[in-house]
Structure formats: structure tokens, C-alpha cells
Amino acid sequence: MILTVTLNTALDITYRVRELRPHASHRVSEVTERPGGKGLNVARVLAALGHEVMVTGFTGGATGRVVQDQLTDTPGVLDALVPVAGATRRTIAVVDELTGDTTQLNEPGPTVTSAEWRAFQEAYESLLTGEISAVALCGSLPPGLPVGAYAGLIRTARTAGIPVLLDTSGEPLRRGVAARPDIVKPNAEELAELTGSQDPLRATQATRRRGARAVVASLGAQGLLAATPEGTWHATPPARIPGNPTGAGDSAVAGLLSGWVERLPWPDRLARAVALSAATVLSPVAGEFDRAAYEELLGRVAVTGDASAAWVSP
Amino acid sequence: MILTVTLNTALDITYRVRELRPHASHRVSEVTERPGGKGLNVARVLAALGHEVMVTGFTGGATGRVVQDQLTDTPGVLDALVPVAGATRRTIAVVDELTGDTTQLNEPGPTVTSAEWRAFQEAYESLLTGEISAVALCGSLPPGLPVGAYAGLIRTARTAGIPVLLDTSGEPLRRGVAARPDIVKPNAEELAELTGSQDPLRATQATRRRGARAVVASLGAQGLLAATPEGTWHATPPARIPGNPTGAGDSAVAGLLSGWVERLPWPDRLARAVALSAATVLSPVAGEFDRAAYEELLGRVAVTGDASAAWVSP
User: Fold this and answer.
1) Is residue B250 flagged as an active site residue?
2) Using CA atoms, how far apart are residues B233 and B224, in angstroms rounded to an integer?
């Protein structure tokens, strides 16, 4: 069983409108809702790949109840969310029917009290039993949490002997890396912000020196660059994939985690992560992956083992 | 006790963002939520004026529960909403912090089944006891309802001997007027659409000929024009009022209703409606009225009894 942690869970709402125009009134023609926040997205992809997943993080208010109701309807996903007095945030994606362009509105999330944070830490520690094969810590921190929150959760997982992946940004990423997680998965922008280097190869190596055991950088259309104790690899999709990149990074995390707990070698983990990510971009539903495309793409991902030679700066 | 009917209740959500830009991602700095839909707004103003109000209409889903929880916390308002399987709609007002301009996103609302509509009609009829002094039918119809829905509710109220006000638009207004309501309150656009005339005085008279006993047209900064069996009046605010017009029409309806059940003469009802409407535009909170401004404005509303002379076409 894999445990994913989403401290700032969300109800992701998608609105279709003809064309968003500032200061006008719009009739929404279609409304869809689903559980959101990176860790819940990762869990949904893992479950679709046949893995058992437990999800934790915070849930509160009417939006939290909707998120939990929908999780109950997702086979393979176990709900271990912890209650909080504030309301789970909404994110609203407004899609223009004419062009497919999306405007995003993100609520900040509930302010978590120190008592609620302590209750979460206790619940998290009690979930880290022998049943859990890996932990993924995903996404932004809600208001009220200490910036070192992920660093603490990484130490707890390491103490329990459970491997841990971190996917966040900014200062929580910086503090998290110093707590020595097994994998971090920054994108190009997060990596540059963390290390000050625009060169992904140098930046991944610098991130390892700061404490991460392995670094897998997601570089959009250029695939994944992995710096690990076993070697350095660059995995690229067979072609430029048109579509909606929402959730592609979360699918990559799910690919890495599933390959990890199945003890696949690094090149196979990376190929799976790149194929899942590309199949998510291709899917007509944002954040879902197209299974046929995934299986077709899997054999066509190129993985080169000498990243320093294979990597051409953009 | 006044009964207000809101067939398409809403949870009105307001987001503050720095500046809404299409196809960009925005952090929402502030989220506020309150019960919405015209009849619920009218009820809140009536309650603030010291009237007892009962609200009915449909409620469903997680958003419906939030609306009902907030109504429970509103003194003077009794909740008689009828459950529906679909979810109560959200409306989202995105306010630019820089300019105060607002972009509106309105969900369509739940599709109401014919069984749910029958259940509502029975509940409505059972509410029309001697305790109810007036009924207000307010706002748009949710998907699934017959276009003559308001016409039927007007006939039921008339059969029960209870005076009824209608505030809606388009075909539901046209059908409603033919069912002979005591008052209709169209705005200039609704009036022109109904009658084909851009001249408010002619259009209000034409609307009376179509079946409405009295017509009170809301003409924005030019106040209210009333054509009634007792005479024709034009009521205007003392000055052009700067601010947010959201809810000004609902406050005007609350003013008319409260003056009606208190048996005030028409000029006093109209003065109250104009002052409440202007005090709503002035209020910093959309849809609330500024009580001090209302009391100050009340004595300064000009009501002229010879509307055909006093009315100057814009």
C-alpha cells in the first residue's frame, strides 16, 4: 500500500463558458467536480494502475465532505483524511469553449491551527506501519502550517524505515530536501528556484548534494532528467504531445512511485513516468490518463543513460 | 409573515483577486459565501427591516446544505425550502482589487424533475395559510421547470386570496403577467423585451393591459416608475449614487413588499423602495444596505404624481 499526503486538498471544479471576458457576466454551460490536490491526483492514477493507495491530509467543511464522498466512490483508494475546522479549498478552472484555453482561480485553503497540525502528525505516524511501502508528500502547504512541515514528515517516514518522495516548491521544498528524502520531483522552474541554476543537469546534481537521494526533474516536452545513486538518465517522449498538461506532473509521480514499489530498475521507472505523463496530456479529461495511449507510448520512450552527453540545454 | 419563493436558489461566492486576466492562474486573496437567488436576497432585506419572512424554493446537494446552514443563522428568516436531488447552483463574482470591477460566473442550477416540481407545488399551496400576508416570486427558473411555472404559482396565490408580486424576465415573465399578479417589477430591459417598447411609461401601461394589476419598473439611476390602479408615479433618488448595483433591484422589491403589508400609500412604498435600493448601491458589501444611508435618503426621494409629465425619456 502506498500512502499519499495532500495537506492542501481541494475540490477541483471545471466550468465551461463560451469565452471568458473580464467584467462580463457568463452562463456556465457545464460544471464538473472532482477531488483535487496533487496527492489525491497521484492516488487516482496509482489506483488506475492497480495499486492500493491510502490518502491522508486535511479535510473540512462542505467542500471537504464532497471530496470525501467522491473518494468513497473511487475503487482502490482508502480515505484517511484528518478533519480540520476550516473548509477545504476550491480551485476553479474556467475553460473557453472556443479555444480550450483555461483561466484558473485558486482559493488559499483553510488556516490550520497548531492543535490540528499536531493531530495530523500523530495520525500520520500511526499510519506508517509495515503495510505502507512508500510515502508521497505532494503539493503546497495550507495557511498556518510551519514552512518545515514536509521536512518533519520526511524525518518521521525515515525513522519508520519507509521510503519517501517529495513534490512541492519554494521554501517547503528547500527545507524538505535538507531532511534527506529518497526522491524529489521538481519541475524546471522549481529546480532553478531551489538551486539558482538554469542548467537542469547541474541543478539536479546540486539538489542531490543538498540532501535528496535521487532527483527526478520534469522538463515538460523534454521529459524527465534523473540524477540517482545508481546513475543519471534522461527519458524523453517519442514526439511533442499536444493537449492539456494539467496533472501530467502528478501522473509522472504516480509512475515513479509504482515503478519503485515494483522494484523496477530506474530506466523502466522513468519510461513509465514519461509515458503516463504524456498519456495524461493526450487525454480529453484534464488529469486523467488515456490507457491505450499509455500502453502504446510505453515502448517508445527513449531513455539514455549518459545524461551529461544526451542532455542538450534548451 | 411574507413568503418569498426562489426556485433557483444559489450559493453566492465572492472572490477577490488582484486583476482577472483570461488564461492566467490567480490566487484568490479572500472568499466570502452567502445565500443567494433573488428571493433569498429580498428575504434578508425584509428581515433587516423587522419583518418576519418565510423562504421557499429548492435546495439540494452540498451547496444547498451550506445555504440552509447560513439561513438558520439569519434572524427573522424561516427556512421552508423543498429538497431536490440535484445540487443548488453556485454563482461566482470575481472582484478585481485594483478597480473593483466584477466578473460573474453563474452555474445553471439543478435540473428539477416533474415529480420534484409537483412536490414543490403541494408544499407551496400548504404554506399559503392565513398567516401569509404577501408572496414574492423571484428570479430565473432552474432547468426542467415549465416556462409557465410562475403563472401557476400566481393562480394558486390568487385562489388563496394572497397578494403576489412577480420579479422575473423573458417568457416566465410574459406568462406570469397573463396570470394577473398584483405587482410585477421588471427593469428597463425586461420591460422593453416584454412589450417591444423602449418608452418606460408606455411599456408599463402596456404591461398593465396584459394582466398585471400594478407595474413598478426599476430604471437604474432614474429610480422607479409605477403604473397602478391608484395612479402613476415616478420616484427618483436625490443624486446619482456611486457604488455596486448588485442586489439593488432585490432591495427595491423588499421595499415595495414591506410598504404593501404595512398598507402605506403608493408614494411612500416607492420612496422606501428607492431609498433602500440606493442604500444598497452605497453599501460596501454587495447586496447589503447601509441603514444610516437608507434613513437619510428616505426623506430625500422625490415622488411625482403625474408621471406622464414628470417622466423624461433618457
Assistant:
1) yes
2) 8
Predicted confidence (pLDDT) at residue B309 exceeds the cutoff of 70: no
Q: Would B1-21+31-179 and B182-314 be classified into the same CATH topology?
A: yes
CATH 3.40.1190.20 correct for B1-21+31-179 = yes
Choice between A104 and A312, residue whose per-residue pLDDT is larger: A104
B29 min Cα distance to partner chain A (Å)? 7
Q: How far apart are CA B147 and CA B129, in angstroms?
A: 26
Give the model's pLDDT for residue A242. 81
Mean model confidence pLDDT for chain B? 94
Q: Which of these, B35, B40, B32, B27, lies nearest to B13 by C-alpha position?
A: B32
Going from N- to C-terminal start, the domains of chain B cover 1-21+31-179, 182-314
Q: How confident is the model at residue A99 (pLDDT cuts 50, 70, 90)?
A: confident
CB atoms within 10 A of CB B122: 11
The structure's pTM equals: 0.87
pLDDT value, residue B86: 96
Q: Which residues of B touch A106 (CB under 8 A)?
A: 25-28
Q: Name the residue among A24, A27, A62 with its Cβ closest to that of B65.
A: A62
- CA angle at residue B312 from A24 to B305, to 5 degrees? 115
Distance of CA B45 to the CA centre of its chain: 10
Q: Which of A29, A40, A37 is nearest to A95 (CA)?
A: A29
Residues 84-123 of B with CB under 8 A from A: 92, 94, 96, 101-108
With cut-offs at 50, 70 and 90, classify the pLDDT of residue B314.
very low
The class (CATH top level) of A182-314 is alpha beta
Kindly provide the ipTM of the predicted complex, given to two decimals: 0.86
Neighbours of B73 (CB within 10 A): 8
Pick from A25, A65, A107: CB nearest B62: A65
Does residue B226 contact residue B264 with C-beta atoms inside 8 Å? no
Cα A41 from chain centre: 7
What are A159's three cell numbers?
525513522
DSSP bridge partners of B227: B215, B232
- Homologous superfamily (CATH) for A1-168: Ribokinase (3.40.1190.20)
Q: What is the pLDDT of residues A39-94, one digit of tens each?
A: 999 999 999 999 999 999 999 999 999 999 999 999 999 999 999 999 999 999 99
Q: Mean pLDDT over residues A26-30, rounded?
A: 95
Bridge partners, B106 (sequence order): A27, B91
Query: What pairing do the DSSP bridges indicate for beta strands A82-83 and A53-59?
Result: parallel
